[in-house]
Amino acid sequence: MLPKTVTVHCRSKNNDLGSRDLNTWDEYSWSFGNNAFGGTLFWCDLRIAKANQCLHFDAYDQDDNKHVYRWEVHGAEGITGTNQDGAPVGEVAEWRQC
């Protein structure tokens, strides 16, 4: 079962994108440029307050060849990422107690 509201907070070393509350089927995106010398990294923290569940993951890592373009929340299972072609990328990040 999908959570009704997930709080998402994403940031990098230089940019804090703030927190947003997303409801079922909502989408959240942003754009940015890569560092010419590498090292661009955005990470996100997700929280389901009613269930006291949290999840931390690297949303984008320039130095990782997996290049995830879309992350999806899958209820109790956690999240999964897909590449530009829609193929699964990496492992599922799992929820933990906050």
TrEMBL record:
Keywords: Secreted, Self-incompatibility, Signal. It is found in: Secreted. Its main location: secreted. GO terms for cellular component: extracellular region. It comes from the Eukaryota. GO terms for biological process: rejection of self pollen. InterPro entries: Self-incomp_S1. Belongs to the plant self-incompatibility (S1) protein family. This is S-protein homolog. It comes from Linum tenue. The lineage of its organism: Eukaryota, Viridiplantae, Streptophyta, Embryophyta, Tracheophyta.
